[in-house]
Each structure stands twice: as C-alpha cells, then as structure tokens.
Amino acid sequence: MAGIDLRALFALDGKTALVTGGSRGIGLMIAQGLVGAGARVYLAARKPDELAAAVEALDGAATPIVADLATQAGTRALADAIAEREPALHILVNNAGANWGAPLDEYPESGWDKVMALNVKAVFDLTRFLRPQLEAASRAGDPARVVNVGSIDGIQVPALETYAYSASKAAVHHLTRVLARKLAPKITVNAIAPGPFESKMMAATLERFGEAIRASCPLGRIGEPEDMAGIAIYLSSRAGAYVTGAVIPVDGGIATTK
Fold first, then answer.
1. Which residues are catalytic?
2. According to the model, what pLDDT value does residue 231 have?
3. In the structure, what pLDDT confidence band is assigned to residue 204 with cuts at 50, 70 and 90?
4. Quick check: 201 pLDDT over 80?
5. Cα separation of 110 and 129, whole Å?
6. Are 111 and 164 in contact (CB under 8 A)?
7. C-alpha span between 25 and 17 (Å, rounded)
8. Is the model more confident about 208 or about 229?
9. Which residues, in sequence order, are CB contacts of 84 under 8 Å at separation 6+?
C-alpha cells in the first residue's frame, strides 16, 4: 500500500510491556508476540520456576517478576516494582486469571471470591495503579494500551458449571468499556475474548471434549499461539491505535456465528 510502512504499522520497537500471568498459556503466547514485534517485556506470575521456564522459552528476551495478584497488596507491589524500573509503560496486558467449577448447589464462597478477586478486581487495581506510567508513555496518535483478557464464556453461556468464571469475564468486558471512556485519549483499553486454546486451564476440558469443541468451531480447530500473538500485536501497535472499548472474540467463530 503506497505511503504506508506496513512493517512499522505492526512494530513495537522501543515499547515496554507488562504481561500478567505471563509464564504459560495465553499469557506466554501474547508475550511471544510482543517480544517478536520488538517490545521489551516483563512477565509477572506467582511461581519462580514457571517464570524461569517462560524466560527460557523466550530466549531470555523478557524480565520476570514474581507477583501474586490475588490481593490488592500483591497488585500494588507489582505496580510499584514496575514503577521503580520504568518511568513509562506502553502496554499493560491483564491476563492473570483463575477458574473454579462446581455444581450450582455446592458452589463455594471461597471459589467465587478467589475468581472475582483475580479476574476482575486485580484488572481494575493494576490498571489504575499503573496509570501514571501508562500516561507517561502516551504520545499524540500513539496512546498507551491496556489489553484485558476476557473469554467467550463472558459472551455466551458456557457448557460447564463455571459460574464465577463466566460472570467475571463478562465483568471484564464491561469494565474494559468503562475504562476506555475514562482513560481516553491517552490510554486505549480493549479486551480479547479467547475461545479454546491449548493451556493448562483448558487442558482437562480439551482432553474430555476436544473433538466436540473442534466440531463446533466454524474454522474447525483449536486456537494456536500465532492467533493470540497476532491480535495482541494488532491492539498494541500503531495498527490498533484508533480502537478502544472493543471486545474482540478470538475463537474461530464459536461464539459469534450461532
């Protein structure tokens, strides 16, 4: 296309990013994409050994930070750790999350509280705690980016009894819209709503129902790392600079073609 540098359109050279829950699964897929596009990436997760393995998978091109976002104190500690290292943060990916399944009449309060605290409250807290660094990274025509990881279970009714999880992801989607309005024009806020991808959280489901899930997908497959990396690069790069308040399903059409 004449007049447009297509490589620069999707490049993240000189950008700094934080990916929570970045040691495995969707978080690691996103981190791989951001690193490949040129960003300097911090990975936050609870387990040092898993973080070390993730950094090795990224050929050392990421900085690990041990963090537990289950409490506000843990979220504040991560924000402080980033602020000590970086005066400006261009990209925040709120990916850390938890799931809990149980029959309706047996669903425990502890499970509900754990899922809501990590999946919703930590997203809200980390975004507002890092707002000064995000705003410092913003430039005219190139705002800072917040990318929240929701789920198609926040769009459709899930088949499994994961009540808190689906409710929390619907909350993330709407929180994304609310924050997009509040933080504009210096920060864009968007959400990715993944369908089935290979991850530890999805492993048992895919083992039991993988063939049925593939059969229900219009594109006939499970999501691959490139699919997640691609949408993250788009939202984080100049290509996605005019998009905010969006919830983008990345699910092969499962939730959007029924």
1. 165
2. 98
3. confident
4. no
5. 26
6. yes
7. 17
8. 229
9. none
Backbone angles phi, psi at 18, to 5 degrees: -120, 125
Residue 216 lies inside a defined structural domain of this protein: yes
Q: Report the half-sphere exposure of 53 (CA within 13 A, side-chain side).
A: 10
Q: Residue 41 — φ and ψ, nearest 5°?
A: -120, 135
Total domains in the chain come to 1
Return d(Cα 195, Cα 209) in angstroms, integer: 14
Q: What residue numbers bound the domain in which 155 lies?
A: 72-250
67 — pLDDT class (breaks 50, 70, 90): very high
CATH number of the domain that residue 145 is part of: 3.40.50.720
Answering whether pTM is above 0.90, one says: yes
Q: Residue type for 156, please?
A: Q
pLDDT > 70 in the chain, percent: 98
Q: What confidence score (pLDDT) does residue 256 get?
A: 87
Please check whether residue 57 lies inside any domain of the structure. Answer: no
Q: Does residue 105 lie in a domain region?
A: yes
21 part of a folded domain? no
Nearest to 69 by CA among 90, 47, 52, 91: 47
Q: Residue 2 burial (CB < 10 Å; 0-12/13-18/19+)?
A: exposed
Which residue, 92, 125, 97, 100, is CA-closest to 193? Answer: 97
The one-character DSSP state at 90 is S
Angstrom distance (rounded) from CA 87 to CA 209: 46
Nearest partner of 134 among 79, 186, 75, judged by Cα: 186
Local confidence band at 77 (pLDDT 50, 70, 90 cut-offs): very high
Place of tokens 């459709």: 156
Beta carbons within 8 Å of 22's beta carbon, 6+ residues apart: 28, 30, 31, 41, 42, 43, 44, 45, 51, 54, 62, 93, 95
DSSP code of residue 139: B
Structure tokens at 8: 């620069």
